[in-house]
Amino acid sequence: MKLFDNHIDAVSRCRERKSDIWAKVLFVWTPLCCAVPNVALSVTEPLSVMARIANVLLPLGIYWFLITLTRNVGKATLLMFPLMFLAAFQSVLLKLYGRSVIAVDMFLNLVTTNPAEVGELLGNLTAAIAFVAVVYLTPIIMALVSIAKGWLISDRWRMRQRVLAVVSSLSGLIAMAFSFGAAKAYDPFNDLYPLNAFYNICLAVSRDVQMHNHLASERFTFGASDTHANDGREVYVLVVGETARADNWQLNGYFRNTTPELVGMSGLTSFRRAFSQSNTTHKSVPMLLSSVNAYSFNDSINEVKSILSAFKEAGYHTAFISNQRRNHSYIDFFGGEADTCIFVKEMSEGSEKSGPFYDSDLLPLLDEMLNRNYRRQFIVLHTYGSHFNYADRYPRECAVFKPDHPLEAIEANHEKLINSYDNTILYTSRLLRDIIGRLDDAGICSAMLYTSDHGEDIFDDERNLFLHASPIPSYFQIHVPFIVWMSDSYRSTYPDAARNVVANARKLVSTSDAFFHTALDISGISTRVFEARHSVANALYKESSPVYLNDHNEAVGLSDAGLSESEILKITGM
């Protein structure tokens, strides 16, 4: 009997040892997985040696202390879930963008991007998702098992680990003190993860609240009037593209025939040196459609109305037609100013058509607007353009460049990704051809302006960057196409504007300024906010120093935004 009892005791002790081992594994794993972004960012960010040390030791010490708050290591791990979730998010973004903490704009993208877009992206990031699943889901599962089985760590173990945590934190604080004297000023709110991430969350919440209280603009007026003496009909169309980068347009010297319908087209001018002041849709499109630019965005975006209201004040019938979904952003507010506001995907709800949706679905609605024969008409078309997943932006019969799948977001698929992306540019080219064809066939005085909100990275160089909206922009993300087309009737009626567009074609253009002011100038709309120096249709047009609207809504030079000298030269010196 005694032998049996000894056996039971031995089994019990063995189980306790196993539980103790697993509890300690979970104890160590949890803070270390939280610290993965700290280690990665200490390598990727331009910081002093002391700042790099501080950014690892101080947060790691805090993570290590938090896990000691209770003997039940499973409960402690679950309490640290927000930190692990943030670390997982940060890890995926580092995989995508190569550097920088989670930006304010990235948090805003979570609330201004529809679930379908998120699904498309995540479905093609299997490598990054697999890493997150292994590193971050495993301790969560272990924590649940730990709670169920009652894994506990001893008080003695906890006290020893607290000493290590304090030593790590103090060492980090000492390193931080030395880092303040480095050549590059150290700012914990910008440089210390996860403090900078939580700070950006607060800024994102503040901006989201501000955006949803877009009331200050209610009394805003342009004081607009129509100065054109032409008694005939005039129609102006603005086409806002999505994620189209200028380098993949045949019009701009690309080696592929991605815009064959537009090359040599009468009345069409392409501006090769055009750039956007933002690489995010929720900021770039409002700047395209209003008088706000990088300098005034933060202070004025909530207090202005869009170009649609300017045309309405001048007596135009206005329409905003979008192939994107509402996302409770400034784009929605501006679109709602139009006499007719249509979101194509909303029209399908309750109907037989449930998708896929292509930008060509905008054409029947454009036809409907044109057939109304208003004497003065202004139409804004917001396309889905070249947004990832590229292969979903065009019908299969329009896949000219092949192979164009699979499109998993890995460097090895660069050729397939480029093929599919080029197909989206070709499809956009055909859309513009069809829009121009409708205006041209009508024989009316008309013009069309096209640009994209921003561009895209597609594993183009040794940095292996992909997509857009990264905290540190690249040349490919802000170099965008900009096209002006004028009908024969327009060019004969307003020859000065036509000559000025051609004369300014080689100049540097900020689309965030030029799109709005050129549209007003071409249509002869006089307003108190119009600036001739920003209109490419004006003899007074002047190039301005390129700036970028950074994550904290500050206008900074391209070098301060993070672009290299060679990237800046590619934009400014073309």
CATH class of the largest domain: Alpha Beta
Helix content: 40-55%
Indicate the proportion of strand residues: 5-15%
Quote the average pLDDT. Answer: 90
Q: How many structural domains can be distinguished in the coordinates?
A: 2
Q: Main β-sheet, in a few words?
A: 7 strands, mixed
Strand order of the largest sheet: 3-11-8-2-7-5-6
Indicate the CATH architecture of the largest domain. Answer: 3-Layer(aba) Sandwich
CATH superfamily of the largest domain: Alkaline Phosphatase, subunit A
Can you characterise this structure?
The chain is of the alpha/beta class and 574 residues long. It folds into 2 domains: 169 residues, no CATH class; 341 residues, 3-Layer(aba) Sandwich (Alkaline Phosphatase, subunit A). The chain is 49% helix and 10% strand. The strands form 5 sheets. The chain has a 7-stranded mixed sheet with strand order 3-11-8-2-7-5-6, sandwiched between helices. The longest helix is centred in the first third of the chain and has 33 residues. It starts with a helix and ends with a helix.
